[in-house]
Design goal:
heterotrimer, B: alpha+beta, 3 domains, eight-stranded mixed sheet, three-stranded antiparallel sheet, C: 38% helix, flat
């Protein structure tokens, strides 16, 4: 009997009925992880021993995986970078601490794009993560291993981080659910910072209710994080089934104008399937309208994200010198050892982004580059907030297509396609709660929709997603490679 | 002759229990890497959480320096690589610091002067490096200790003014209880800007001397730098805008980096610390905690109590002494005489034994009692001095000592009169002798009384009574 | 004008070096991003907008009470350093 491919409710039931023990679940999870590791490479570390738990919550005794940029005391945490390949934290991230306290059982640490700066799952220091639906394709990133582990049925849920789309994109390519709550809802303490003003902790699962279970555990005010939100004293699982009649959603017209005329068949099919989903969503009682969004702002999303995220990242990662921690460089002077550690410790992509980020922050460029990016960020967020006065959520295709093959170049994509590839970051700009749901298949690969709601209304977003999930036919799906 | 213009940037460690952004102890420790939390090591995933008390102390200082205080306070990152900076950036304030546009008063050679303060901002200290043969060791104890950096306008024109400002600033820290401001522990450190010009209104090229760590060194560094620049200018040269370092062993400054090599710190808003609203009610509470400062007290002492600037300055050097002095006034002491006792006997004793005034056995009340014994003529001031010294050394109250030593003067006229009559009884011939012109017989009689009372009779009273007695009966 | 030499200087200030061909790629990337940023600068009304650091106005920021806690053991503090002497992190001599 296999449990790791089941929902949290089903596993809980089996545990409570004592038809299975948490030891057995841990063993199952670990052996699945090992079994799939050569094909998928989802893990940096697979734990050998289970910590004993003695609390009783919905999650107690249930195995899960953490992205390897989340600090775990005594357990190697590399951020998938060579510069941290020997780093064993001496403190716990708040999200890990909360899960531990709830009795959830950590079984492994998952691969990410190096330092979470990438969207392909191909830049981690332990190698590329493959898509469990088709191993010639990317799973996407940066939370690549967490997405793969859930899609493969190794764990019922996993924790990730999301700065641009790092949970919601790999969830889409992996055919699972990925949720990034409101900025500050889950503490960032212990999450290795990429771009602090955009970073979020969130989770993956195979259905919306499981997402709500996990979010209920990991959310909350944290004295270690000044930007963490006050407790909302809500239990998201309680309101999942609330009536959604009359809830209003919109999608952005400019994102796929004239898609019918595209010669990219996958793109065409993805959009027409999205529009079919929209119809079904209307049948559920939602009002869904097409809304026009300023094109210049849509086009500005990606450069704005690049400017802000690279700038913050170059500063956030200045602690990686190999001196108080990390792999020490060689040399005869202090500068030589720092240079050596960072030259060898970072891959090319990371260095390019750091140089870009530091250029953007240079005194003479700040006004034109950094501050302008921050200004556009506000314009986009203001526009979204204005739309949210009328609408409860933005419903969009999570991507303009299916998971790309390894080596496929993004810059060959058309302008329209780019908007669809980048719009998820809007939710990071404004800290909006945002969830990706699998919605069907194109060329036997999963496609997904994304639902983004008002700031602080995580409960409403989960409620709406829970309802929409009923018409997708993709609830609790396991990737081909995990069957 | 060139006119020097001096600006100061003074870093001072604040007195708090914990660091600015972590809950590790803000304490001096000889044992390395003991007062450390995750934040202080810049470990991956850490977030700064600001210390309420650090903000409070810095607001107090901003107030005391007459600064404008913004509605919101923000923090920025100052980015640079150095092994004493584990995060790779220092969290400091740039856009909306805790205070701007303030001033402090100084007095140099009897003249008052306003030193303008550009801003004062809250930031964090770096780790410390200990240097050995061919290596250095990093101790992170100091990393993250709250620092208040106060930046003056370039408005001082002599080394005396610069030192007076530093002393004045130090006293504000001490009076506010915001810092121990100990230069011997590196708690107060300065960057000094010096420029020379031949006209009052034009600033010359600025040279910055980094990290000078005692007032004496600041003084020497300024003198040395003025001399160096003067020599260059007199030889027809020009001053290079640069950053220099002061070498105290060789009493010279040497170049660290030129203007061209100036570091771009890439300041940007710290994304982990939201703007902090400074609640006005809180500000009012903080305001109330600020005591009267040195400068104000000097003015009061001079204008209201008639003390000299010299004496007033001694009294306010430490807040505790000023408070001691003011306490004696509350007990009814005469200001001038209290000042005399404190600045002579008491201060002498404190210096001799290196004890602070707060640790003295003698309370202001005791001092006032002793002073009253003198003014009522019960003991002489010479006796009072002896009693005071004994009181300080033996930790006994003056009243007890007067009794123990039996030195209380026989005070009342009646008591003395009894003895006077006794003496007249023993020497019946004296009235005749006095009448026949031997007026100095009075001295003999006073001497006899003093002898009988072993010096405890008040001489003036005795003389008066003898005079009255000798002419009686005619 | 972005040149390879400038980029090398920037990289050096960030304490790393890159391969020659990596700088070539970077020059091209700068070309792309700077063009896009130029475009951003032309968005109507941008100059009147206040730069945004936080996703929303955070009115709930809390202070920390000035109480000592969560102290790291000295041994943990230096646990991840490769070169330690006398519980301190050892590095080549720092001269300035």
């Amino acid at each position: 009997m296999r449990y790791m491919d089941k929902s949290i409710d089903e596993i809980r039931k089996a545990l409570d009925a004592q038809t299975v023990t948490s030891d057995t679940l841990f063993q199952e999870s670990v052996s699945l992880a090992k079994q799939y590791q050569p094909a998928s490479n989802a893990f940096v570390t697979i734990l050998e021993e289970k910590k004993e738990q003695n609390t009783s919550t919905i999650l107690s005794g249930i195995p899960y995986a953490l992205k390897d940029n989340i600090s775990t005391k005594g357990i190697l945490t590399t951020s998938s970078s060579n510069i941290l390949k020997n780093y064993v934290p001496v403190y716990n991230a708040t999200v890990y601490e909360k899960l531990e306290r709830a009795g959830a059982v950590l079984m492994g640490k998952t691969v990410l794009d190096e330092l979470a700066m990438g969207g392909t799952g191909t830049t981690g220091h332990t190698g590329i993560v493959k898509n469990p639906w088709d191993d010639t394709r990317q799973i996407g990133g940066s939370s690549a291993g967490s997405a793969a582990a859930v899609a493969l049925g190794i764990v019922p849920f996993a924790i990730g981080s999301d700065t641009g789309d790092s949970i919601r994109k790999p969830a889409a390519f992996g055919g699972i659910v990925g949720f990034k709550p409101t900025y500050g809802r889950v503490s960032r303490y212990g999450l290795f910072a990429f771009a602090s003003s955009l970073d979020h902790v969130g989770c993956f699962a195979r259905n919306v209710k499981d997402i709500a279970y996990v979010t209920d555990i990991i959310k909350g005010k944290d004295p270690h994080d000044m930007t963490s939100l006050p407790d909302d004293n809500k239990k998201y699982t309680d309101t999942l089934d609330h009536d959604i009649k009359g809830r209003k959603l919109f999608y952005i017209k400019e994102a796929f104008e004239n898609y019918e005329n595209s010669d990219n068949l996958e793109y065409k099919e993805t959009i027409s399937k999205f529009l079919e989903t929209v119809e079904k969503v209307r049948e559920l009682g939602f009002v869904v309208e097409e809304v026009s969004f300023p094109k210049e702002l849509l086009n500005a999303v990606y450069p704005t994200y690049m400017a802000i995220s690279c700038a913050e990242a170059t500063s956030n990662n200045a602690n990686l010198t190999g001196i108080p921690f990390g792999v020490r460089g060689e040399g005869n002077s202090i500068n030589e050892i720092m240079m050596d550690a960072r030259t060898k410790g970072f891959s090319e992509l990371i260095k390019r982004r750091f140089v870009l980020g530091s250029y953007i922050l240079q005194k003479e460029n700040q006004e034109k580059l950094f501050k302008n990016a921050q200004r556009v960020r506000r314009m986009i967020v203001d526009k979204m907030n204005a739309l949210f006065k009328k609408y409860d959520g933005l419903l969009m295709p999570a991507s303009g297509g299916i998971a790309p093959h390894f080596g496929e170049k993004d810059d060959q994509l058309s302008d329209r396609y780019l908007i669809l590839e980048n719009h998820l970051v809007i939710a990071n700009f404004g800290g909006f709660p945002s969830i990706t749901l699998p919605s069907g298949f194109v060329n036997e690969m999963p496609i997904a929709i994304n639902l983004t709601g008002r700031q602080f209304e995580d409960d409403v977003v989960l409620n709406m997603a829970y309802k929409i999930e009923t018409i997708t036919g993709c609830k609790n799906q396991i990737a081909k490679g995990g069957k | 002759m060139y006119i020097p213009t001096i600006g100061l940037e003074v870093h001072c460690e604040l007195k708090t229990n914990t660091k600015n952004f972590s809950s590790a102890a803000n304490a001096y420790s000889e044992i390395p890497n003991r007062n450390i939390a995750t934040v202080d090591l810049g470990l991956p995933g850490i977030l700064p959480v600001i210390n309420e008390n650090g903000v409070k102390q810095s607001l107090k200082m901003a107030f005391a320096m007459h600064c404008e205080i913004p509605e919101f306070m923000t923090f920025e990152r100052k980015n640079y690589f150095y092994p004493d900076l584990p995060k790779g950036y220092q969290i400091t304030q740039f856009d909306q610091p805790v205070g701007v546009n303030g001033y402090l008063m100084i007095n140099v050679n009897g003249e008052d002067k306003k030193v303008l303060i550009h801003d004062t901002h809250l930031e964090e200290d770096t780790a410390s490096l200990d240097h050995y043969g061919n290596y250095s060791l990093i101790d992170y104890n100091r990393a993250g200790v709250p620092l208040l950096e106060t930046v003056t306008e370039p408005c001082m024109h002599s080394v005396e003014e610069a030192i007076a400002f530093l002393e004045s600033l130090r006293s504000v820290f001490l009076y506010c209880g915001a810092s121990e401001a100990r230069t011997d522990r590196g708690q107060m450190r300065c960057d000094v800007n010096v420029s020379l010009s031949d006209s009052e209104n034009i600033l010359g090229t600025k040279v910055e001397i980094k990290n000078v760590n005692s007032f004496n060194n600041v003084k020497d560094a300024i003198i040395t730098e003025i001399k160096r620049q003067t020599e260059i200018l007199e030889a027809g040269g020009s001053i290079a805008q640069e950053t220099r370092r002061y070498d105290e062993n060789n009493m010279c400054t040497y170049s660290m980096r030129s203007k061209e090599d100036a570091i771009d710190y890439k300041y940007f808003k710290e994304p982990n610390i939201p703007p902090i609203k400074i609640e006005r009610e809180w500000l009012e509470e903080i305001k109330k905690e600020i005591p009267a400062l040195q400068y104000e007290r000097i003015t009061t002492y001079m204008e209201e109590y008639g003390l000299s600037r010299y004496d007033a300055t001694i009294l306010v050097k430490e807040k505790e002494m000023a408070e001691y002095f003011e306490e004696t006034l509350k007990e009814g002491a005469d200001p001038k005489s209290a000042c005399n006792w404190i600045t002579s006997v008491i201060l002498g004793h404190m210096n001799k034994y290196e004890i602070p005034i707060t640790k003295l056995f003698l309370t202001p009340k005791m001092l006032v009692e002793l002073m009253e014994l003198v003014s009522s003529g019960k003991i002489s001031s010479k006796q009072a001095k002896e009693v005071l010294l004994k009181s300080l050394e033996e930790e006994k109250s003056p009243a007890t000592l007067v009794e123990e030593l039996g030195i209380e003067q026989i005070g009342t006229d009646d008591e003395i009169l009894v003895i006077v009559k006794e003496v007249f009884g023993e020497h019946p011939e004296v009235k005749e002798q006095y009448k026949s012109g031997r007026t100095n017989i009075v001295d003999f009689l006073v001497g006899q009384v003093m002898k009988k009372t072993r010096g405890q009779a008040n001489p003036a009273t005795t003389r008066k009574l003898v005079q009255e007695e000798i002419v009686k009966g005619e | 004008m972005i040149t390879k030499e400038k980029l090398k200087d920037y990289a050096g200030k960030l304490m790393f070096d890159m391969k020659e061909e990596e700088y070539d790629t970077l020059v091209k990337e700068f070309d792309v991003i700077l063009k896009q940023m130029d475009f951003i600068g032309k968005i109507e009304g941008i100059e009147q907008v206040e730069p945004m650091t936080f996703p929303y106005e955070i009115g709930h920021a809390h202070f920390r009470k000035d109480e000592v806690k969560d102290i790291l053991e000295t041994v943990d503090a230096v646990k991840n350093a490769s070169d330690v002497e006398n519980n301190q992190v050892r590095v080549p001599k720092v001269v300035d």
